[in-house]
Design goal:
Radius of gyration: 15 Å
Number of strands: 8
Strand content: 15-25%
Strand order of the largest sheet: 5-4-3-6-7-8
Number of helices: 7
Order of helices and strands: EEEHEHEHEHEHEHH
Helix content: 25-40%
CATH topology: Rossmann fold
Length: about 170
Amino acid sequence: MGKPIAGASYNPGKKVEKMIKIDIPGWGDMEIENIVLDMNGTIATDGKILPEVKERINVLSENVKVYVLTADTHETADGEVRDMNMELIKITEKDSQRGKLEFLKTLELEKTVAVGNGNSDQLIMKEACLGIAVLGDEGISIPTMKNSDLVVKNIYDALDLFLKPKRLIATLRQ
């Protein structure tokens, strides 16, 4: 199993599973196995992923499965994710909103978090157990923001919610 994350617990048992378990009063127990990240505008700006973002994703990948979805607008995805512990999923630009949703539905929705910013992310925000909208350099789509459970100012804050889960608990508890 990966490095322990303060404030999170892990699924004990014979089979080693990647999971972050967070109990949020009034919200319920979350058993997060998958984090689905949009690339451009969310983890990357102008097609480039900063080293600090890559580092956080690599740490998270020790405890959950990380997927990066992209239409690869800047045609940089393959090179940018080369040194990251995640799975790159390329979605066609034509109807990328549906393509992202179709991919999301291949995962257990109740154990999957979606993180994005663009209009093409609005459906995954709505269907995932937790949708996090990121207000980055490219802005945020209003429909995506409305379909999310939480809005953060940048990708660092979004990823840190799982590296420091007490932040998530403090924000979502009732």
